[in-house]
Design brief:
By secondary structure, the chain is an alpha/beta fold. Helix content is about 40%, strand content about 15%. The protein has a domain at about 10-140 and about 215-285: Rossmann fold (3-Layer(aba) Sandwich). The protein is globular and about 45 Å long.
Amino acid sequence: MLQLAREPTAPFTRMVELPGRGTTRVWDCAGPPGSGTLMLIHGVACTARLNWGKVFAPLAGHFRVIAPDLRGHGDGVSAGPQFRLEDCADDIAALAEALDVGRFAVVGYSMGGMVAQLLYRQHPSLVSGLVLCATAASVGVSPAEKLAALALPAAVMWWSPALQMISAEVLQPALLGLIEEPATASWARAELSRTNLAIAVSAMQAVCMFDSSDWIGQVDVPAAVVVTKRDHIVPASRQHDLARAIPGAAAYEVDADHAVCITAPQVFTPVLVKACTQVTPRHRGHARQTRGASPG
């Protein structure tokens, strides 16, 4: 059973200086006394607010929640000449130090799940657990790779001042699919417009090059994988492969597409809370799941 959630305090946002790296926007909400901390890492072209805004309050009823904008996205630090997932992981470590946060569970979505894996590899002393959503150890030849191939090459964009003015809003149909609710569609477009298209394409290329298959089996912290069963970006089979590759990881299925965190939070949230409970020491004894189970 899950611990009863208390009424969460409203999330607040501020800009946080990461020494030697720049400033980034962070959403933060205090959890119940003595609760664990979740570090939420968003997906490509998104902002923390877009990826997590609709699940922030439910999570904060159980945990302290921190959600930064990644470099090059929204109000994140500058991405520099090349977008690298490894740099994003180092940014998160620097943020934890800046906020004086000890160990925390990392919750990554899509590209953010790859950053979460790298954070564990590069800064293992910080990570107490992993929740990997709609992601994989490698996308391989998948719709995500095709999407990157169809987009304009990032190198061309960097050389074209005109293309530098285009935002990632143009990727909404490919990344998020059809959003039927007008207010949600408008909000998604506004948030996507805060990231440059060149950065988004560079990030997609980094995703296509990512491969943790040689070392993901070394993970020795509690882990859960949230599988989006009808995902058109990261095939569900690759998400299940990731769950099988991590010793003791539980798989939680959601019968939805890649953008469920935005388009159907009422479906996604209960499963996400269960997965986070699974990897958080305070709750873990009440929510053990058999590896490969699908409680959602």
